[in-house]
Amino acid sequence: MVLEYYSGLLINGEIFRINFITVMILANLAIGIFLVGMYINLKKWGMGSTGYGKEPSGSIFAFPRMLAQQMSEHAHVHNQSVLETFVLDILFQRRILRRSPLRWFMHFTIFFGWMALFVLSLAMFAVEMVYISAEAMGIHDLPDFLVPTLLRDMLAVPNDIFSYILLTGIIIAIYRRLFIAKMREATIAYDSILLIGLTAITVTGFIADGIRTERLWGFGLDPSLAPPTALFHVVISLLFCIAYIPFSKYIHMIAIPLALLANKGGE
């Protein structure tokens, strides 16, 4: 039923069945690529010396050990708590706000929208896995929030809200890159790829949902196009938002918070 939503990709006039299991295989592949990339980054981050007179370490555990040690000691300049650093400097991003309110609003809407949608997707995935397990064990009397079709309806409004928040940040980012001379001149292909990829993911998500629900974003397209559009959205989301992160500029989403935690925030 609901787990067949991604079925029905039309290729050369014939239906190519792509089910939930296939999507899960793609998800695990993306996670595997992500983990390999993080292993490479941890090796690289561990190449620095962890103390005066010590030789650089190539261990992937060198950086986590150093981070834990930094977080447990007084920083050289700043000495705010880990909680304060996490809330104000990482979540609220006050360092960016001090420099430029517009840039902060752009970053915050992209970060907040992306992370909220990611959490909602994880919730949907968890419920689908519970539903599969319950069906396999012959359990059919589940509460509404554990039935995928019903949960999707419950999450429809939050999904819309956070999608528009994300779209707002993307529109601001595009505007800055196209119409602010300083930003346009500083833009390189690397920046463009990231923005184009994020835009494609957001737009295809709107279109897939619009086709399925017959709303404005569906552009009047045939409902049979909803599954392949949703599949395309899922695949590029997995590859771009998970697998590609350790190998791209988006690694700053991980590296900068870690650096802030190590330095106890501050400028």
Number of domains: 1
Estimate the strand proportion: under 5%
Specify the biggest β-sheet. Answer: 2 strands, antiparallel
| Helix vs. strand class | mainly alpha
| Count of helical regions | 11
List descriptors.
two-stranded antiparallel ribbon, 267 residues, 11 helices, mainly alpha, 67% helix, Fumarate Reductase Cytochrome B subunit
Explain how this protein is built.
The chain is mainly alpha-helical and 267 residues long. It has one domain: Up-down Bundle (Fumarate Reductase Cytochrome B subunit). The chain has 11 helices and 2 strands, in the order E-E-H-H-H-H-H-H-H-H-H-H-H. The protein has helices at 20-45, 62-72, 82-91, 94-99, 101-136, 148-154, 156-179, 181-186, 189-213, 226-243, 252-262; strands spanning 9-11, 14-16. A two-stranded antiparallel sheet has the order 1-2. Strand 1 (9-11) and strand 2 (14-16) form a beta hairpin. Helix 3 runs antiparallel to helix 11 and helix 9 (189-213) packs antiparallel against helix 10 (226-243). The protein is globular and about 55 Å long.
